[in-house]
Amino acid sequence: MVRAPVPERDVALSSNAERMRNAFRHPMIPVLVVIVVLLLFGRILSPGFLGMANIGNILATSTILALAGLGQTFVIMGGGEGIDLSVGALVSLGAILGGAFSNGVNAGLLPALGLLVLLGGFVGFLNGMGVQWIGVPPLVMTLGMASVVDGFALAYTNGQPTGGAPPVLLSIGTGHLFGDIRWLIPVGIVIAIIGYVVLNRSRFGHQLQLVGNNRQAARLSGLPLRNIIIASYVIAGIASILAGVLLLGYAGSSDLEIGNSYTLLSIAAVVIGGTKLTGGEGSYIGTVLGAIALIVLTNVLVAMRLPEGAREVLEGLALVAILVAYTRRRGGQRHLRDRRAIETKGKGEAQ
């Protein structure tokens, strides 16, 4: 059967419509919609919610969560059911030891940062070695390491953290560059650029995505699979402990549980930002947007003037609802792509 040729104009219109549909299916679109809706709802609750001061505060706080989510993104992107449950413990450790090592003075900050980077990298290395060489499941290994880190922090401080944030760190955490622009905002922009470049423009990032997509193919292509996965855990350890340092500058002091919530929040930011939990697909910019969405949600609940317990319950329920909606949407997209592929194949065979 001979088919009539399709006019070029109709082909162009169809192509443009398809591109438009694909744009709206982009994994970052839902999180952007969530952010806008939450901001508008916050504006209804509080007239000053969309003021520059509050937006600056939201972006500054998001920077800390986005840094904690940096390493989590790399671990999850590597596939193999990789999730780092030691993130929160390392954030707490970074805040505690940041104050203790620096003794609250500017001269002690750089040596403290050097020691913390080594310590965070070492914890990440142990996580990676346990997962890749010993064969411990990631959830079990990182949860056990979180307990070790918490125990170390308790033993080191005897339950009473000492030292505070050095003045320069306080300036970064709470100060303003000019007007309502917080110092943490340009810091967050730099972190986002570094994360994007490493994940999307570096050889390591491309290798990590290949490993997450298909480990067997990565192994057959000669990639050092174990070293790549271990490196992702090392990055997670360093990023998490540095997030704790930023948190110290933001809060001014620390306690043993200051970073505990960052474990779940970092995972949620990664997932909401469009990274597949099975690995191989996602972006760090999506994680940054996911972090912003979560911080906006927290601010909305604060604007509702609810008791702290009620806020935590609602925050948990909202987080679960967002994650469920996102997971079902991704599952629906996969089903749609599979169905279209089958239909296309059937049409090709019929012709």
Give the percentage of residues in beta strands.
Answer: under 5%
**H/E element order:** HHHHHHHEEHHHHHHH
Major beta-sheet overview: 2 strands, antiparallel
Provide the gyration radius in Å. 23 Å
**Fraction of residues in H or I helices:** over 70%
Helix tally equals: 14
CATH architecture descriptor name: Orthogonal Bundle
Strand numbers in spatial order across the main sheet: 1-2
Number of strands: 2
Low-confidence stretches: 338-350
Q: How far apart, in Å, are the first and last alpha carbons? A: 9 Å
Broad structural category:
mainly alpha
- For the record, the count of structural domains works out to 1
User: Which term fits the overall shape?
Assistant: globular
Pfam families: BPD_transp_2
Membrane topology: Multi-pass membrane protein
GO cellular component, one term: plasma membrane
Subcellular location: Cell membrane
Task: Outline the structure in words.
By secondary structure, the chain is mainly α. It has a single domain, classed as Orthogonal Bundle (ABC transporter involved in vitamin B12 uptake, BtuC), CATH 1.10.3470. 76% of the residues lie in helices and 1% in strands. It has 14 helices and 2 strands. The protein has a two-stranded antiparallel ribbon with strand order 1-2. The radius of gyration is 23 Å and the shape is globular. It starts with 7 loop residues before the first helix and ends with a helix.
